Amino acid sequence: MAVKSGLLLLLPCTALSTVVAPTASNCIADALPTPSVFGASVLSIDAFESTLESTSVSFCNVTLTYTHPGQDDLIKVWLGLPSAWNGRFQGVGGGGWATGFPSEMVPAISQGYATVSTDGGHDAVGQTTDSWALLSPGNVNLYALQNLASVALNDMTVLGKQMTEAYYGKPISKSYWAGCSTGGRQGLVMAQRYPDAYDGILAPAPAVNWAELIPAMFWPQWVMHKLGYFAPQCELDAITAAAISACDELDGLKDGIVGLTGLCDFDPNTVVGQQYTCGNITGSISTEAAEIARATWTGATDGQGNVQWPGIAPGAPLSALAGTTCDSNGRNCTGTPFPVSTDWHRLFIKKDSTFDPYNYTQAAWNAAFHASVQQYTSTLGTSDPDLSEFKNAGGKIITWHGMADRSIPFNNTLIYYDRVLALDANATDFYRVYLAPGVDHCAGGVGAAPTDPLVALVSWVEDGVVPRVLAANRTVDGSMWKRELCLYPLVSIYKGGDPAAAASYSCER
């Protein structure tokens, strides 16, 4: 057997202590039958008993290593089998280039789920994308990309389920997926390609439409380079604050949140020349900064006024896509692009690790965007709107998306969901999307985030309780404000009364 490197040993030592769990005497590798999945060969299984210090939950900590013969890959599957099993199975997704994170498994294990995740064949923390993306200049490692996109996700699910049922000696009652961003994309690709794998899928802020979304995320950086001006974050923050001030009350309440972004027609040129201050840094808003903000909100264009992919909403922080690093005086700024997008342009579109996407001409940008869509939609795009097999299998999906998401525009989700609805007008019977005004990427921001959408999903799957809204809350000056996230296409409107009470709002068209 391999040297023990179980899933939660990757966590800080303060989160885990390895102890003997007296009720899990079968938590040894030799006692676990070797599972199988078509096209793969299991190389080793490691298992030992562990306890989460934060919750005192004991579990069997399993690491399985396998390969796809002929593909020269080596993939790890992490499986946590709690001693107090709730009968359910949960797949946990990753983020960015990470197929999975062992640390993200902790909440599910703590709640009694048999929990699985995978590295997909590469260590997103210890390895650079350059180390696995190309076999050689001009040649993408398509096997590695397929593992990241979907194959390793199905593998871990099949292997994890077999080991779970063998360990407990009884069938899994229900299976769930949970993951945000890349994890949300992964959940939806499971629904699209492996419709029988999960009964319920929680997929917030999903990075679907990958082949369009990811290249478009570099657009604000390209615009800054073209303008010859990389705006300090303080200047861009001032423009964001002005946009919020202009559009805050469109939903009936002045609360620092742009709730009706579709009605926000704020023009950043109206604040050009206004002063801004951040600590000891002062300046005035430039025409270049106004153009950068507009470009980040509009999204990538083809140079002829046609939008290739939408940008983030006014009111969302500009720091992720139009990020810069400046000196202590807020000057001499350089771009800090979103690394996944930079990697995508260099390694997967141009297939050249030395390529600098700042050097695109408009024509070259257009060609690169088209190449991304043409070459990768079928692999990583996750844009197939046909969920009929998942629906027929009885599956349910909940997606929620923060409207102040600084990384993935919430309209990216709506583009996909509208296509699902166009194909199946009754898709809300099994797939529901909720928008969270003022909430950032997966969490954070000043808006109310869902309190426990997984509980809502389980109730829908197991008890038939259809989630009309998602309960949400936020803290304002130390007090709890409650909201209900509306089912798209409804939007939340303040009707009067206590703004901290959910009853003061209604969901309207």
From TrEMBL:
Gene3D superfamilies: alpha/beta hydrolase. One of its GO terms (molecular function) is metal ion binding. Its EC number is 3.1.1.-. Residues 1-17 form the signal peptide. Pfam families: Tannase. InterPro entries: AB_hydrolase_fold, Tannase/feruloyl_esterase. Keywords: Calcium, Disulfide bond, Hydrolase, Metal-binding, Serine esterase, Signal. SUPFAM superfamilies: alpha/beta-Hydrolases. It comes from the Eukaryota. Belongs to the tannase family. This is Carboxylic ester hydrolase. It comes from Ascochyta lentis. The lineage of its organism: Eukaryota, Fungi, Dikarya, Ascomycota, Pezizomycotina.
